[in-house]
Amino acid sequence: MRIAWLRDHPWHVDALAAAHVEAFGALLPDWTLAQAADELRSHTRACAIPSTLLALDGQGDWLGSVSLLQEDHEHIRQYSPWLASLYVRPQARGQGVGAALVARCVAEAAALGVARLYLYCTGTVADWYRRLGWRDHATVVLGPLQVQVMAVDCAGLER
């Protein structure tokens, strides 16, 4: 497995957008496939905010992705920047893909001078992030879900 910038593998945008809308659409019920694809296509720079990283297998097929965003939801703009949209394809789960993507995203944020990075997730996933060094920051209601906002200090968690 290797981790690369989505901007260098744009042929994966449409499939990735479809996976994101399916996985995260409950939080943004008006979010369309076209909007998701446009957002991913706008991540044209490496080592920047916004950007998206892909985990790729030996044949270059995507296994998962994670984004580094300035804002992840209009109702929680007070926290920034964000590790967002961590997604691992079902066939690649349980193999360390998600942890590798999170570690790389945190390292990229640290390299950009970000002191603290945030994410939000449902309670069922929060324990997994805690094992990766993230801590609870706030509990908020977004649409139909109660989510846990978590934070990590980027210094010390770099590559």
Task: Give a brief outline of the structure.
This protein has helices at 13-24, 33-41, 97-111, 123-131; strands at 2-5, 51-56, 62-69, 82-88, 116-121, 135-142, 145-153.
Share of β-strand residues: 25-35%
Radius of gyration equals: 15 Å
Distance between the termini: 16 Å
- Strand arrangement within the widest β-sheet reads 1-2-3-4
Describe the main β-sheet briefly. 4 strands, antiparallel
Overall mean pLDDT: 88
Would you count the extended β strands for me?
A: 7
The tally of helices reads 4
Helicity range of the residues? 25-40%
Anisotropy-based shape:
globular
Structural class of the helices, strands and pairings?
alpha+beta
Order of helices and strands: EHHEEEHEHEE
Contiguous low-pLDDT stretches (5 residues minimum) are: none
Summarize the structure in words.
A 4-stranded antiparallel β-sheet has the order 1-2-3-4, sandwiched between helices. Strands 5-7-6 form a 3-stranded antiparallel β-sheet. The protein has 159 residues and is α+β, with helices and mostly antiparallel strands. The chain has helices at residues 13-24, 33-41, 97-111, 123-131; strands spanning 2-5, 51-56, 62-69, 82-88, 116-121, 135-142, 145-153. Helix 1 crosses helix 2. 33% of the residues are buried. Strand 2 and strand 3 form a beta hairpin. The chain is globular, with a radius of gyration of 15 Å. 28% of the residues lie in helices and 30% in strands.
